[in-house]
Write a structure and sequence with these properties.
alpha/beta; TIM Barrel; two-stranded antiparallel sheet
Amino acid sequence: MIAALCAAIAQKKAPVVAGLDPALSMVPERMLKDAYAAHGETLKGAAEAILSFNKEIIDYVYDLVPCVKPQIAMYERFGFEGVRAYVETIRYAKEKGLFVIGDIKRGDIGSTASAYAEAHIGTVQVGSKTYAAFEEDFATVNAYLGSDGVKPFVDICNKEDKGIFVLVKTSNPSGGELQDKVLAGTQEMTVYEQMAALVSEWGKDSMDGDYSNVGAVTGATYPEEGKKLRALMPHTFFLVPGYGAQGATAKDLAPFFNKDGSGAIVNSSRGIIAAWQSKEYEGIKDAEHAAGEAARMAANTMITELRTVTGGN
C-alpha cells in the first residue's frame, strides 16, 4: 500500500495529506441551516452538516493532494450518526481517487487489537460473506503497549495490502514527558528512539518497495528529532503532523524527507479545512463555496512551500 501512496505523491508532486478534523464551528452557516432544516438540531443534523462540509473540501482538493486523514474522535462525539458521517466521508474520498488514513490511534493487545485491525484496515467475516467495515487504506496506531498491540495490524497489512503509522515522536508539547525520557541502562537512548527501533524491526516484515507498510508518526514541531529519526529509519515512511496551525513551517520539514525528496507526507488540518475563516482568505468568505475555495488555495500554497524542501517532488 505504501508503494501506491508514494506513486500518487510523485504523480501529483504533493506530499500533502488534508486532515479532515471538522468542528461545527468550521462549517459555513448555509450548510448548518440546510442540515438543521432537514434533521433538526440533533446529532444527525450535526453529522449531516459535517459530511456536507467534508464533501465540499474533498471536491476542491482531490486533484491536488493524494490523501486525506479523517480524525475519528471528531465524528464519534456525535455518536452513531457521527460514525456514519466518518464512514461516508471515507467512501466519498475514495470515490474521488484519494487514499485515506484513518486517524484512530488505537492501541490494545490480543483479540482487541485484532478486532481494531480488522475493523479499520481489514475485513470481518459474517456467515458466508466478508465485509470491510471502515475501508481506510492506513490507520494510526499507538504502540506503547508493545509488540502485542502491533503484530495484529502488521498481519492485516500483509494480508490486505494496507498500512499503519505508529506514534513515535508526536507533535504535542507534552509528548516529551514520556517520549524524551532516557532509558535506564543506556547513556542517551530515549523512549522515542527505542520506539523507532521497534518500528524499524516491525517494518521488516512488511516491505513494499523502498519503504515499509509500517510507517511512523513524527511531529513537524521537532525538526532536530526528525533529523535523528530519519537517519534511524531510512526505510520507514513518515506521517508528519504539526504543519501550519501547530507552528511548523516548510523549512522545519526538510529533515523528515530523504535526500531524494521522498519518505514523508505532511498533514495540515485546520490550515486547509478552516482556511476560509482566516484573515488570509477574508475576501472569499461570502462566496457560495468559500470553504472549498479557501481550502484549495491553502493546499496549493502548502504544496508550493513543500516543493522548496523536496526538490520539486
